[in-house]
Amino acid sequence: MHRNIGTTERWLRVIIGLIILSLIYFIDSDWRWIGLVGIVPLATAVIGWCPAYALFGINTCKDKHLQDSGG
Fold first, then answer.
1. pLDDT tens digits, residue range 33-61?
2. From CA 67, how far away is CA 58, in angstroms rounded?
3. 3-state secondary structure of 48
4. What distance in Å separates the CA atoms of residue 44 and residue 14, rounded to the nearest whole number?
5. Do the beta carbons of residue 45 and residue 10 sit within 8 Å?
6. First to last CA, the chain
7. What span, in angstroms and rounded, lies between the C-alpha atoms of 1 and 53?
8. Are 62 and 5 in contact (CB under 8 A)?
9. pLDDT at 6
10. How many CB atoms are closer than 10 A to CB 71?
11. Which runs of E-coded beta strand occur in the chain?
12. What distance in Å separates the CA atoms of residue 38 and residue 17, rounded to the nearest whole number?
């Protein structure tokens, strides 16, 4: 897998993932578990690879060295 998510976007995904994940604590209904969706942006940020981006041929990683190394 080649990295297809740039550094700035990775940080944004971490922030957004944590915000969504925090819904588990702030929503007082059965819908609070929807916050687990926040795991998806966190996981893609950690891996540096997004399967949807790969499917559509999108690449926001500008550093050629990181794309080739996969990490």
1. 999 999 999 999 999 999 999 999 999 98
2. 12
3. coil
4. 9
5. yes
6. 9
7. 12
8. no
9. 93
10. 10
11. none
12. 4
The one-letter amino acid code at 55 reads: L
The length of the chain, given as a count of residues: 71
Q: Residue 26 has which token pair?
A: 């702030």
Angle formed at CA 59 by CA 53 and CA 60, multiple of 5 degrees: 115
pTM: 0.82
Residue 31, number of CB atoms within 10 A of its CB: 9
Amino acid symbol at 31: W
pLDDT at 70 over 60: no
**Tokens found for residue 56:** 């559509």
Distance CA 67, CA 44 (A): 15
